[in-house]
Backbone:
């Protein structure tokens, strides 16, 4: 038998009447303090039974403090009227108490809470648990908390010296030393930080280690907040563990510090978490700097540096998300709940003035309206970016192990993360539809329906899109030649310089090779002598055959040596621009045979080679039109696909980045050569940019959607 049902039968209506006869009262352990907010005296009240902080105007607080559970509404009205000199009735006091009752403000004993819970309708409870269940929202999953106040009291007794001036100065010196090491090694640390948080090359072991270290860091972070709250006399009734978008996090209830502390003290409480992370980083940095690489201590210290260093500082001090930086900004500006108030204002303003919905815009002083709008837009964009990156993070993790189906957990995580926002969007669209339905139906006459259907059909089925493929490239000359030394020799003269335009056959360098030149002279003499002997043999009827053979042999040697000697003058094989720098530095140097001397390139036509995946190769054809956007140049250049390689190539890391996905079988890539004219010579070899090749076929929106579905089914479900 259901225990709740049995209690309902055993105690019919009695608890309700008993509780109705009791009068509201404050939590006996409440804490309060007056603060000046927007030049208005406000009383901040911390109620331990609810774990919440309330803020009331001073006159409301003067009324609330009279509720002790014994006074009747008439007695409270009489006392409050006497204190303020104005007559207040019991009905007004009862209505005020009822409004606070609806917010669960008044104190209840454990028995009263159980009775109220039992009186609730069972279906309502189940619905509430469905909506607000502990594990139903991926944005934050809370685990049972514990009360660390006694432990913190002892810990503070041992570590109160943390807040002394001398320790603060020592800490700042450590910060400066760690910062100096970071600046010196920033190229390495900056690169590793991006790779560390990218999660494209992490194994399950790496992820487990990261989670363990992350839990240690966030635990120290939250204990620092609690320690600072205890330093300023506040109690810390709760501390626990949570998963925020599957990321480990601890939470600490320092509400009493926010109630009792001054603005400076509240800033210190907010700053304490970042401060302890910087201390950990300042300790880990010298350890990493002074320990041998590839050791456990070295790698562990480096992990802590990357977790608690500049990245953590930037994340925690970012005021666009509700972390320490946000709370510090609220304290500095003196605005409570900046994100909620600014978002509510902008959302209501858009609904009222843009969508023309019957929504009341909250009042915001004119001096704050622009700031609220800017902050709401920036914080909203940043929050959605973070949510998108979390979904991408999950995809990167699973892509390391199963790249084919990693999209399933990635899409599933995105749906879980954006579930509440999708629900809000659906409700908003329903609201808009219900508000505009009558006018929309009145506007859609039969003629307009026909026109709308025709326009929709045109937009869906008219082929207005072309197939296209894009990719990065590095510009190369359309035609280039590398001139090498055909014979060894000493550089005797230089006729060209870098950037100089030369014609085909123009001299570039002059070499000197005395042994070769001597051999040429000797060969000329031998050939002349052999010719005379052959002539004499003819005239004197001598051995004409032998003389002719000697002459021909001498002539052949003379021709070969003359050809080799002709190579001492280095000429350009093509018309183009000299690319080799500092040619004049070679003057007087000895050049070995085969050494590279000069590079000449025809820059009137440039070539861009882009890597096209095998999945997109069907969109490319020889002769297809293309457009090229070169980095640093505003004008978009026209190009044409000239050639497509028949064999696949490995993707150039300089264009794609370092890909370290474990287990990923990357697609094959083919090179497509684009040729573009460069009449003014503004384009230079080595320039990078983005090129887009256009296919011949044109597609409609419906065709593109069908093609995407067909390709997905063909690749994933075949």
Residues:
């Amino acid at each position: 038998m259901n225990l709740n049902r049995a209690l309902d039968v055993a105690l019919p209506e009695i608890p309700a009447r008993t509780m109705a006869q009791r009068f509201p009262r404050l939590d006996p352990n409440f804490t309060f303090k007056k603060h000046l907010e927007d030049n208005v005296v406000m009383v901040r009240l911390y109620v331990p039974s609810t774990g919440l902080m309330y803020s009331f105007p001073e006159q409301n607080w003067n009324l609330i403090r009279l509720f002790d559970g014994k006074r009747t509404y008439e007695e409270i009205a009489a006392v409050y009227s006497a204190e303020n000199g104005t007559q207040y009735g019991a009905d007004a006091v009862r209505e005020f108490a009822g409004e606070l009752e609806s917010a669960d403000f008044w104190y209840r004993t454990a028995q009263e809470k159980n009775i109220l819970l039992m009186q609730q309708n069972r279906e309502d409870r189940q619905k509430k648990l469905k909506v607000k269940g502990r594990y139903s929202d991926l944005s934050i999953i809370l685990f049972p908390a514990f009360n660390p106040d006694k432990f913190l009291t002892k810990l503070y007794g041992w570590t109160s010296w943390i807040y002394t001036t001398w320790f603060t100065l020592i800490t700042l010196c450590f910060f400066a030393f760690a910062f100096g090491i970071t600046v010196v090694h920033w190229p390495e640390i900056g690169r590793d930080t991006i790779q560390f948080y990218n999660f494209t090359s992490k194994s399950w072991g790496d992820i487990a280690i990261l989670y363990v270290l992350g839990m240690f860091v966030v635990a120290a972070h939250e204990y620092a907040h609690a320690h600072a709250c205890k330093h300023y006399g506040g109690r810390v009734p709760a501390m626990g563990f949570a998963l925020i978008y599957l990321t480990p996090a601890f939470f600490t209830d320092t509400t009493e510090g926010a109630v009792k502390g001054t603005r400076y003290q509240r800033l210190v409480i907010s700053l304490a978490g970042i401060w302890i992370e910087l201390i950990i980083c300042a300790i880990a940095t010298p350890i990493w700097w002074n320990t041998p690489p590839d050791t456990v201590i070295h790698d562990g210290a480096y992990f802590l540096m990357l977790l608690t260093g500049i990245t953590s500082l930037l994340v925690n001090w970012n005021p666009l998300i509700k972390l320490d930086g946000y709370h510090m900004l609220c304290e500095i500006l003196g605005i409570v709940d900046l994100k909620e108030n600014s978002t509510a204002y902008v959302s209501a303003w858009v609904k009222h003035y843009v969508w023309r919905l019957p929504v009341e815009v909250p009042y915001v002083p004119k001096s704050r309206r622009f700031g609220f709008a800017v902050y709401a837009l920036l914080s909203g964009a940043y929050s959605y970016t973070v949510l998108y990156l979390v979904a991408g993070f999950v995809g990167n993790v699973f892509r390391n192990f199963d790249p084919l189906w990693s999209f399933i957990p990635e899409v599933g995580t995105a749906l879980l993360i954006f579930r509440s926002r999708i629900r809000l969007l659906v409700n908003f669209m329903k609201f808009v539809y219900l508000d505009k339905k009558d006018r929309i139906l009145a506007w859609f006459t039969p003629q307009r329906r026909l026109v709308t259907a025709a326009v929709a059909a045109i937009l869906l089925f008219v082929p207005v899109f072309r197939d296209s493929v894009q990719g990065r490239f590095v510009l190369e000359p359309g035609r280039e030649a590398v001139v090498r030394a055909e014979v060894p020799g000493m550089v005797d003269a230089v006729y060209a310089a870098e950037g100089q335009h030369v014609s085909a056959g123009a001299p570039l360098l002059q070499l000197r090779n005395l042994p070769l030149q001597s051999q040429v002279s000797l060969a000329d003499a031998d050939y002349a002598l052999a010719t005379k002997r052959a002539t004499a043999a003819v005239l004197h009827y001598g051995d004409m055959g032998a003389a002719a053979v000697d002459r021909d042999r001498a002539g052949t040697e003379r021709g070969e040596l003359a050809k080799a000697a002709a190579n001492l003058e280095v000429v350009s094989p093509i018309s183009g621009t000299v690319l080799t720098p500092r040619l004049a530095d070679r003057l007087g140097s000895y050049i070995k045979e085969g050494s590279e001397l000069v590079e000449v390139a025809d820059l009137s036509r440039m070539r861009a080679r882009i890597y096209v995946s095998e999945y997109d190769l069907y969109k490319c054809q020889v002769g297809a039109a293309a457009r090229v956007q070169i980095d640093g140049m505003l004008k978009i250049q026209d190009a044409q696909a000239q050639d497509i390689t028949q064999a696949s190539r490995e993707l150039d890391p300089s264009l794609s980045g370092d890909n370290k996905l474990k287990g990923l079988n990357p697609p094959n890539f083919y090179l497509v050569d684009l040729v573009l004219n460069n009449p003014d010579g503004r384009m230079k070899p080595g320039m990078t940019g983005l090129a887009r090749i256009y296919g011949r076929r044109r597609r409609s929106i419906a065709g593109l959607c069908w093609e995407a579905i067909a390709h997905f089914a063909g690749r994933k479900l075949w």
About this structure: Confidence is low (pLDDT under 50) at residues 1-20, 115-136, 657-664. The longest helix spans residues 366-399.
